[in-house]
Amino acid sequence: MKHEHRAMAAELRTKGRKLEGYAATFNTEARIAGAFTEVIAPGAFAGSLRAGSDILALADHDPTRVLGRTMSKTLRLAEDSRGLTFEIDLPDTQAGRDVLALAERGDLGGMSFGFTATDERRDGDRRILRAVDLFEVSVVSAWPAYPETTVQARWKPVGHIALAHAQRVIRIMEAQQWAS
């Protein structure tokens, strides 16, 4: 079976050192290499998610730039009515820091996924992916195949940053108390 990759501009958010969003969306048409139109059917990823396979999160499909994996629970995947959701706990590595910096600036192209089609239907130049064997999701720097989704970066204080903010708030409250 042939391994394939699909990139899409996915909704992407940062929360501290986490990325989350949609790696794929259902019922959205994408023109693949100008040759055919592809649509992902709802439930296409369900078999892979049930199987408990070790699925990787990569930067630009590069297996030397691992961002997370389901086996270690640093990558979490699920299907909802819109598509394949993901959450990645980013590592404190160069790849993790680079991806986070690009996400916060809004510079990422989107998401992509690597798969083997296990059930597809063709109708002329239209291909419907009904079931796939998913082996990776990737944060991509450049051109997505599914441009209808969006990439967003949001930041939420965590860890020592949240603690420092809380300490500043307490000092301000104490100063206000002394002033009154």
> Percent of residues in beta strands?
35-45%
What gap, in angstroms, lies between the N and C termini?
74 Å
Q: Overall mean pLDDT score?
A: 79
Multimeric state = single chain
The major pleated sheet works out as:
7 strands, mixed
Query: Quick one: how many beta strands?
Result: 11
**N-to-C SSE string, H for helix and E for strand:** EEEEEHEEEEHEEH
Q: Percentage of helical residues?
A: 10-25%
- Overall geometry: globular
Radius of gyration: 19 Å
Low-confidence stretches: 148-176
How many individual domains? 1
Q: What class do helices, strands and sheet pairing give?
A: alpha+beta
Summed up, the helix count is: 3
Protein name: Prohead serine protease domain-containing protein
Domain Prohead serine protease: 14-154
Pfam families: Peptidase_S78
GO molecular function, one term: peptidase activity
What does this protein look like?
With 180 residues, this protein is of the alpha+beta class. It has one domain (3-179). Helices cover 22% and strands 44% of the residues. The chain is built from 3 helices and 11 strands; from the N terminus they run E-E-E-E-E-H-E-E-E-E-H-E-E-H. It has helices at 46-51, 94-105, 159-179; strands at 3-8, 12-15, 18-25, 30-32, 36-40, 56-59, 62-69, 75-79, 83-89, 110-123, 126-140. Strands 1, 4, 5, 6, 7, 10 and 11 form a 7-stranded mixed sheet that branches. The longest helix has 21 residues, at 159-179.
